[in-house]
Records
---
Amino acid sequence: VPEIPPRRLGIDLGGSKIEGAVLDPAGRVVAAERVPTPAADGHAAVVAAVAGLVARLEARVGRADCVGIGTPGSIAPDDGRLRNCNAACLNGHRISDDFAAALGRDVTVANDADCFTLSEATDGAAAGARIVFGIILGTGTGGGVVVDGRLVGGPDGITGEWGHNPLPWPTPEELPGPECSCGRRACIEAWVSGTGLAADHARDGGPRLDGREIALRAAAGDPRARASLERHHERLARALATVVNLLDPDVIVVGGGLSALDSLYARVPAGWRRHIVADPVRTRLARARHGDASGVRGAAFLAAARRSAS
Ligand SMILES: [Zn+2]
């Protein structure tokens, strides 16, 4: 077992905010700070904001032994350029090199859903599990795979991108399906993300509400909101059944805004049983333990946890 460095610094770089934290060997946060992402000011301003955040954290607790950065999108394996990030000014840049130059040291960069999964597999809801699939249900759907404590990465940098498979076993009413952010149609993301749930509720004739508001109305007895949640959970059950059939994970950990929906943890496993070829199904569905902090925690763990593909 490799020794855990005294100070691991993680950065969660999102489209609207940048979070930084330094973790001690026990995984406790010893310093943390959050700043808005100056996305409108361009790529150089974002790199400078990250460098400033790192400098302030290190002024408080000392120089970090390793720095990891998690961000939406993925690094193209051939040329190292970022793609599909919601801080769009970073797309097309070799951000690993940019951050290494700004910070004067090596920096490990990974997808934010990968960081989330690594965090939950290390000391979160999936601690001790061998095969972990992490999903983020928020604006979009992210995913990551950790096996034996290590992130799984492949030649295309897209491991775990389950959200852009089509929704399986569609009913006639579900075809041709809503348009997805990726330009395809009927993707899982377009149905089961927070955005997808809100859009489905509106298509059914309900008011334009976010997932949390739909859950509140369902809890208050609103039949339309209850029906929307029920459709959402049944679709998520179908979508995850194909993941279980492929990967047979010990745990599927759920993060993002919709992870707050209590009904999900009973209804989805009840719904996936008929689609999974094992009986009984031993895969557990669990809510993330570290919530929003999982991104920054996983980023801090990155440098210590070598990617299995590299
Ligand atoms: Zn898609």
---
Amino acid sequence: MARSALSTLGCSRCSRTYDPDRIQQLCECGAPLLARYDLATAATSLTRESLARRPHGLWRFRELLPVRRDDAVVSLGEHASPILPLRRAGESVGLTDLYCKDEGALPTGSFKARGAAVGISRARELGVQRFAMPSNGNAGSAWSLYAARAGMQAIIVMPAVSPPIHRIQCLLAGAKVVLVDGLINDAGRLVSRACAKDGVYDASTMKEPYRIEGKKTLGFEIAEQFEWNVPDVIVYPTGGGVGLIGMHKAFRELQAIGLLGPALPRFIAVQSSGCAPIVKAFREQRDVSQPWDGASTVAFGINVPKAIGDFLILRILAETGGSAIAVDDEDILEYQERLAKHEGVLASLEGAATLAAVAQARKLGTIGAGERVLIINTASGSLQLESACPPIEKLGVDDELQIARDH
Ligand SMILES: Cc1ncc(COP(=O)(O)O)c(C=O)c1O
Ligand SMILES: [Zn+2]
């Protein structure tokens, strides 16, 4: 089995570096730490030829993942998620080359499985037994289930208004669940204070360096599935932005080891107009976002009023010539239905938001008709369908069922 080429942890803002083989959280300056690899070493064994011989799944990119020991790997069978051509949805927005990476197919039903698989494996390798984290839902489910598999204890703090299905999943997995009468940032503050007081590992978004390494595999897979010619545009539903930062990091690392050419996709960050701090900061050409007051959207996973990695997201949008788009909740619901009706894809509301954004970008000309565009459906729609249910005809047991008139 190939080995991890992890070499150090570097600050995303200042020049400090940290020992990766000890538990680390944020840099002293308060910014997230990012894993760095010995890329020359990774390049000697991570090649197109060696990849062709390796088993499927995210661990095939082992050199550029932080887990050193095979026996530390915690897996629920993370296969590559499919990339589906969207012919009819594409036509409806004037695109001939539109695709969806459907992350609903991953264990636990969302792309959060990637971060949990790698984050939990590395935490276990470093001797962590308990961790706490805030979550809007999917991350809590994924981390609870992977923690159960690893024999670790998870403490998940969730907004009381988050979809109940997730807290049930966490409880089934044996996690301690606490609801907070507030949003994800409030949950984050509670976690941060408790972790500091009790010396518990804080697994909040970007407060430990390894969740993003798992999210990075989304980028590795995209590059490989598109046969090392990445799409022109990648459209991502952005809350904390970990997936977006992760994909970008993946492409940079693949470039550095010679697996990808110089062209990078333009990244489009999508938010709901009910919570759009990144979109606002992007429009105002700021380096960081301001906390969004009164955040509210049906797409709960992207209801993040202030992301700790906002400066990284904004930097990537600028560097790749991308943009940031806000979509209304009604459009999110409409595009969720369209994806199901036109394509058979049961998308999450966050995923549906990306198609709504593509429609908007086409009207504005931000995306050209001939471009190859990839939207990311970050979770299965089956986890949150209450808000989407259309009216249904109801019959008494002796009524007559009328089918002929419908077709
Ligand atoms: C379904 C879904 N999509 C998108 C996101 C946002 O992810 P990120 O933190 O990478 O921006 C989340 C986060 O909770 C989510 O659950
Ligand atoms: Zn720093």
---
Amino acid sequence: MADAMNAGIKVHDSLGARIAGVGYDEMLAREKGSFLDDCRQAAKPPNFMFPGGGGAVTLVLTYRSDGSGSTRCPNGPIEIDDKGTRGYKGIRFCVLVDGAERCGEEMVTEWGYRAREIPPTCRRCIIVAEKLRGEWKAEWPENDPYLDYISGLNGEIVQHVSDRIRGGVEYCQAANGYFQGLAADAFKDATCRIGKEAFTDRKSPLWGCRPILSQHDESIGEAPSDRSSEAAHRVSEIMVTTLQEWCPDLAPAVKAGPVLMTRWEKDAAPVYSSEGRLIPWVPN
Ligand SMILES: [Zn+2]
């Protein structure tokens, strides 16, 4: 996956292409709302969840209701946009990639060869998720030895670079720790550097700015409007160089684009003035 990222390959598009059985270029050229688009949407959860040791049932349960978007489906129970498109809240794998007319036609409350008890879950979604797990493994074969290694640990991991020790970890926590912990440590470091400039460095464009929130991979703060462009670019620069120090193997792939807005909106995108200054995005 690291090689793919450094080569500029989009990892969700790449797995989505495999799920759809098409080439990567065809996936890139997909139309919005197409089957390829659905396969691309179905590729994101496996890329995020399976390296953390989760299985098919966890994948279905995690993504069916939270803020992971919605699934278009003419027979769906709710309207998912203001155009009256029907569908489901969250990701429904059976509808997205297996052509199901509705999700949850057959619900199961146990799964696996040990018939483990699970919350009522769409059987077809789980079967699709198991197939997706196979596609994910074929796309990123390094995960087989990785998860084997995780199985052999006994409750403790030492994070790369920081040497931070995390004890009392079970299988999924250990797998997720290595998958995600390095980025988290790097981001904490970037947060400290941003704060230090904002509060102590009079020469920095961040002087007098106020870091507010470090949200997984977004650093959110307030800046005086007359130098908000410089401040936002400086935050980006700190995030990029800090992660490159922590994770030099992925240095070519590191990006952190700045965006300005007068209030936080998930859809915000960078907007530039004719003089090339970053200016606040406003909703249509
Ligand atoms: Zn389903």
---
Amino acid sequence: MALQAIVLGSAAGGGFPQWNCGCPNCERARRGDLPSRTQDSLAISANGSGWFLLNASPDLARQIQQQAALWPRAARHSPIRGVVLTNGDLDHVLGLLLLRENQPLTVYATREVRAGLEQNAMLKTLQRFEGQLVWHALEYGREQELLGPGGEASGIFVRAFAAPGKPPVHLMRGALPSAGDNCGVSVRATGSARLVYASATSAIEPIAGELDGAAALLLDGTFWSETELPSAGLGRANARDMAHLPMSGSGGSLALCRELRIGQRWYTHINNSNPVLDPLSAEHARLQADGWQLAEDGLRLSI
Ligand SMILES: [Zn+2]
């Protein structure tokens, strides 16, 4: 059985273009010179009828509208069985609230990510009746089959692994950093090869063993360089301050993944400031020379 994956969104938080950004990239996307991108999320299925989301982006309603595979098959129905959350960042969890309207769902998350969400009273809109939201703990290093809200098997097997990260910005005050803040997942269907999704990581070494041998990798492509935001006057934080390893440089993800055995190499979660968004840029050429491509919204993979 093959694992099917659809890239629902390929932009970092804020999307592309970002509503309050007039940088050259965002202006080009607004004019239609560069393809716009919604915020990072993936849909996966082993049978084409039941789907799980890897993260739920604030753009989820638009993403569902763009993908017939996610449309209802009957009155008051959804093929979306549940959501796997890889961290508590708003660009990965706000879409959960869009999945209200009395639809039972399972949510897989670490203890830390769940606790962060449950601090917010709005989550109760997904807990209007017993069994509307069925929580499962994402346990690192253990493969678990994703289950629908009624306990039904999906044929999708997920192994989560800690990826160096941080708590979400809105919880940074008071929350001590923990390995449960951020993870990647290795996903397969029965008998299929592995797809690895790690859309946020500040280092490669600790997760290299998980990336090695992947048939397809969707990796954190937020920034090209460490000082991308301050250099462009778009912010004060460096890439690693935001727990994103940049692509370039001797310690960047291009260099650190070079020796790993990886089939398809895709960057996703691409920030609107990243020069690789211009397909004619020197940075984009360097990425391609290393065998990488940029994921785009709507990209379909069969593993
Ligand atoms: Zn911008």
